[in-house]
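FORM 7B: Structural annotation worksheet

SECTION A. Query
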Amino acid sequence: MPGFVAIKILRALVTLLICVTAVFVVLRLAGDPADMLLPEDTPAEIKAEYRQRWGLEGSIPEQFGRYMVALARGDLGVSFADGRQAAEVVFEAMPNTFLLGLSAILLALMLGLPAGLIAALRHNGTVDRLLMAIAVAGFSIPSFFFAILLILTFSLTLRWLPAAGTDTLWHMILPTLALSAALVGKLARYTRTAMLDVLGQPYMRTAKAKGLRHSAVMLRHALPNAAVPILMFLGIEIGLILTGAAVVETIFAWPGLGRLLVSSAAARDLPVVQGVILLVAFVIVLSNLAVDILHAMLDPRIELIRRNPAT
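SECTION B. Predicted structure
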């Protein structure tokens, strides 16, 4: 197990390095921020001063080398927009995104898990088809379109809920619904599939043949075995849900990482853009790393396959 974990950590670090390098190079190739942000009639010496202040002087490899040295010290650079440390700007928005993401995940667990379990137990029945139809609609409708529908219905027409801001808990309802809709549908279908796979296993028929009550069979045999793939799925989605927050946060004026990324990209604030993408990539890589390690801990076959790949 220690060797397995070490390999996974090494792969995670390499993935982060590739992500940082790609983002850095692509943003620099898009154009010189000094030419885009400063007026056309700005003297050349003033532009040179700003390039030096922003770390834009020299070739891209030179800039990347200085950036990696600063990054190793925890320095993401200085925001072009307001002169503050980019890390400070990013960490200000981080709690709002994590709060919204956690709310969406909890709502998905409350709705998606029971829906998938009920659908599996009512396989091919009317309830199963109805729940799966709703689930497919949940992850098929684009989040921006669903968010607009929520605003039109509950804010503009019914006037029940606010459409923007973070002042009260009521402001969280619509963005949480918009962000969790796709996850609810995916989780319901994945739970249904995992449960049906477990219910068709020979040990389930053996447990039923022993005369165990249906509730005991579900609690002792079906749910624990179905929980492993569901946990793997959730671990991946926890990281990916941050990427889907950009559109939702922008629509609902939610001051999180997604909205910060959009506004910073429009303003060519490269240090903040790089900081947000780096943080999101870190969360995604960390969640996938945790999933791999958890999978190896819960499923002994992973270690067996690693030791005997020929089998």
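SECTION C. Observations
The chain has 14 helices and no strands. The CA atoms of residues 55 and 206 lie 68 Å apart.

SECTION D. Sign-off
Analyst initials: ____
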